[in-house]
Amino acid sequence: MGTADSVLHTERPNLAVVQGQLVEGPVLAAGAEPTLVGWGNLARPGVEVLSEDLRALTAGRVLSRGLGRAYGDSAQPPPGVLEVAGTVLADRILGFDPDTGLMRAEAGLSLHEINRLFIPRGWFPPVTPGTQFVTLGGAVAADVHGKNHHVAGCFGQHVTRLLMRVPDGRVLWCSKTEHPDLFLATIGGMGLTGHVLEVEFRMDRIPSSWIWGETLRVGDIGEYIGLLKQSASEWPMTMGWIDCVSKGRRLGRGVLFRGRWATPDEAPSKLATPFSRLTVPIMLPSWTLNPVTVRAFNAGVYWKPTHRQKPVHWESFFYPLDKVRHWNRAYGRKGFTQYQCVLPDEAGPEAARRFLEVLTSTPGGTSFLCVIKDCGPQSDAMLSFPTRGISIALDIPVRTDTQALVDRLNEATLAEGGRIYLAKDSFTRPDHFRAMEGERLDRFMEVRRRWDPDLRMRSAQSVRVLGDPAGGQDRDI
Amino acid sequence: MGRSLARLMAARGDRLVLLGRDAEQLERSAADLQARSGTDAPVLTAICDLADPSSFAPALSAATEGFGKLDCVVVTAGLFATQDQLEADPELALRLATIDFANTVGFCERARAVLLGGGGGKLCVFSSVAGDRGRKPVVIYGAAKAGLSAYLEGLDHKFRAQGLQTICVKPGFVKTGMTANLQPPPFAGEPDAVAARVLRAIDRGSPVVYAPWIWRWIMLVIRCLPRFVMRRIGF
Fold this sequence. Notes:
The structure holds two protein chains of two kinds. Chain A is of the alpha+beta class. Chain A has two domains: 93-205, 2-Layer Sandwich (Uridine Diphospho-n-acetylenolpyruvylglucosamine Reductase, domain 3); 210-435, Vanillyl-alcohol Oxidase, Chain A, domain 3. Helices cover 23% and strands 23% of the residues of chain A. Chain A has 13 helices and 22 strands. Chain A has helices spanning 54-58, 111-118, 136-141, 149-152, 180-186, 221-232, 291-303, 314-318, 351-361, 402-415, 430-437, 439-451, 460-465; strands at 35-37, 43-45, 47-50, 64-65, 83-86, 93-96, 102-106, 123-124, 159-165, 171-175, 195-202, 204-205, 210-218, 237-242, 254-261, 278-279, 307-313, 324-325, 336-344, 370-375, 389-397, 419-420. In chain A, strand 6 and strand 7 (102-106) form a beta hairpin. Chain A is globular. The two termini of chain A are 32 Å apart. Chain B has a domain at 70-232: NAD(P)-binding Rossmann-like Domain (Rossmann fold). In chain B, the strands form two sheets. In chain B, strands 3-4-5-6 form a four-stranded parallel beta sheet. Chain B has a two-stranded parallel sheet with strand order 1-2. In chain B, helix 6 (139-159) links the parallel strand 4 and strand 5 (164-171). Classes of the chains: A alpha+beta, B alpha/beta. The interface between A and B is large, with 34 and 38 residues. Chain B: It holds the Pfam family adh_short. Chain B: This is Putative oxidoreductase.
């Protein structure tokens, strides 16, 4: 099975070169139109071409895709192009220095695999999003953030170097000193500056495999924000779930989780090993999540037993939703979108309440889950999402009025001087995005055009939000 | 498949030599296995190409020199192409039959001598369920694998008493780089699960292992079907 290494060589450079295969283009069941989805399950025409050899795979392709956990159209090909380069088979660790924690690996390696291998040895990724099923390439492209953003910043701030295939076809390293413009545009650049082939970054030492954590119940949004900001000075990791279905006095009641790595004395003596997972085996009907079940879930979250400080399993702390594989199927075939914005501190402590009031007063504004996190200062990466303030994330089932809802939320975000997270987005209009990003977007586009004058690297999202040209095979390299 | 299996072996502390065509790729894979094993034990590499029989002897002696003695040789390499591609390109068909049958046997003959010279050991070779019955979608690939499976069975009969255990792996459809652009059929396996099953078979010395397991029963049915049925179905 399979050739021992690398690809089978062919004379045709534009061929989909896949290990052991002479296949031109995808081979699929007759009659089926191939589609690709983001995590929100909104389908578009597309095919993922996989190979263990990223150098061969990315040549001539317009976009890379990792584990497909971006909710919207970030990792879907632009209209007129079918294929994206799937990186997940390229998952080799190329070096790890146990003295410094410096790791170099291929872009398709997932945080899940890193956790499985390195938590027992006392190492953890410096920053992790709410799922471990993301690749390093995806973590760089979205410049992911986690519960520790207020102290550790984004993933990109721990990246030392990137090996990239840039749009003109060259393969080169970039860092803060080598092609710094490319480096800072690529982190958070949603894959639009080139293909990330290898990532070098620094892992964190951890004192145990357990989190010393605490859960607190909070009565309303004002109390929640106050406690979130107050916790930031003592706790490196904070976040919470908010009930955003209840209105009025109860608006924003919820639970706040805070934690830090447990010291060896505090931690149980046994290693915290990964959980086994449940699976949602089939797409559930779209009415599974309706106002009644959403209300029940939110009440359940609020009344979930809280606990005082104690050791918590790292997987339940960082990745509660990873316990159920394919949980996105609960939203059914119509799919869902996530809306995530950051509201800056300058907007004042009441900004979150004003935003949630817009949400609850708009048709379709019932979110299954609402996560509010604290954000530290903005990084140097040009399009990196977080900035000092609070981040609000909502899961919204797609209905006919979802576009209108997202438009209203974007106007509310704009009014507070905030911005949205592209890794979650499916509906934002280009004028809203431009108004939120302003000069940051100009600077990003300037660097992008410097490296890619013809805008070869594109995604469905970049065509929708940045106004990139759609285009068929004639635009291909 | 080879990568998944090697990772399982490295994780439990086995010492490994990787054989392959491309020195740079071998170095990268060796670095990966070493980082995953978390030990200082080096992972060695040697150039070997199933398309080039003159590379077999040097590769095997380099591997033997590295560790003094080999306990187990695993052959996962092979060439795959669809029946349509092979029918359209007779040279490719000849190349596939040569690599997957003649040259693989040639390599195994040298590995057999090395293992027996060291007092025995295990020879694990990836054949395929495609070799269990002549079938329309795998006429040529299946024929090469049928020959390979027959060779491995004979080898096992003849040399098991002398300490050489032969393990013939018959994977069904596994989602690997080789099959990345094919539509997975029902019962397609994940490489890591298949690798775990193969490793267990190696440890036990099972002469034949189907992976995923259900293919054993699927192929039992296929082998029992009369010719007039096989002529009609597309499987």
